[in-house]
Amino acid sequence: MSPETQKSHPFESQRAEAGRKCLPQQLSRLSRLQNLNLSLNYLTGEIPVNLSHCVKLKSLVLEHNTLVGNNNQAGLFPGSIGNLTSLEELYLSYNNLEGQVPASLARLTKLRIPGLSVNSLSGEFPPPLQLLPNLQILYLAKCQFIGSIPSSLANASKSLELDFPINNFTGNIPKGFGNLRNLLWLNVWSNQFGHGKHDDLDFVNSLTNCRSLQMLHFRDNQFVGTLPHSAVNLSTQLQSLLFYGNRISGSIPKEISNLVNLNLFKLSNNNLTVFLYWRRNLKDQPAPEYRFKSARFYPNISFGTVYKGTFASDGTVIAVKVLKLQHEGASKSFLAECQALGNIRHQ
């Protein structure tokens, strides 16, 4: 093999060299730069401190890399980002940032979207993020945050999406979130919310003020108590409501049908008793009342118990099935029976 063929191609050498470096320091010379997107580039190393010289930067997107802070801070979140006071969007999710979110981020008064999910960030809910007057979307999923959600976050009146699942947050959902009238999305699944008291779900009452809500995810927490009747007054725009994996008891209010756009409603792995009501003849019949003149017990029905009853108001004969959703397979059985009942055509 000739010496020429043994040499690496200059382009290949540049690629290898680039793979061993963090973001180039020369980026700081781009004084007019407003948007920088280097996501999904397998970048490693540090976020340059002098990147803060790009004072006109409005959007910084570095997510899905393996970036860290700087040598002096051993991977900690780079506080120098707080000097980018024109910044409106900051996406640093899916990197190797560690430690607490620096107080300098409070200087980013124009910041609308901080995306910090899937890092090794720790500490209590980041105080600087509570002070952002233009906050709209907050992504803090799958970090190592602890403590409670501060009530001051309810002052972020422009909030559209609050997303901080898979952390170790405790306490409860601030009732002040009902003041977030533009809120579309609240996702806090897989935390440790709930005090173990029967008023754990009282915050649902306040969320009825959020008339644009489309998604509420509270699964895999420690909420107890009954599902408040006020849940039936949540936004009619609601499409997804998840409460499964808690310790909720009682039954589902019949007026839950008010949520006409709901397409995902999951309450499995709780302690609920679900009532299914149907009549022999549905034609021109008024809505039933939950009062019975007589009932007969039919045991040994899968996933629950069936009763034959008669309405006290008009004598209509009905069947009532009480499901025990804590039994494995009960949720699928419930959905299958609902589908079957929907296909029935009464004569």
Automatic annotation (TrEMBL):
Tell me the domain of life: Eukaryota
Keyword match Calcium: no
Where, per UniProt, does this protein localize?
Membrane
Residue intervals of the Protein kinase domain: 292-347
Q: Which Pfam families match?
A: LRR_1 (PF00560)
Q: Which GO terms describe its molecular function?
A: ATP binding; protein kinase activity
> What GO CC annotations are associated with the protein?
membrane
Principal place of residence: membrane
**Matching SUPFAM superfamilies, A to Z?**
L domain-like, Protein kinase-like (PK-like)
Q: Which UniProt keywords apply?
A: Kinase, Leucine-rich repeat, Membrane, Receptor, Repeat, Transferase, Transmembrane, Transmembrane helix
This one is known as Receptor kinase-like protein, putative
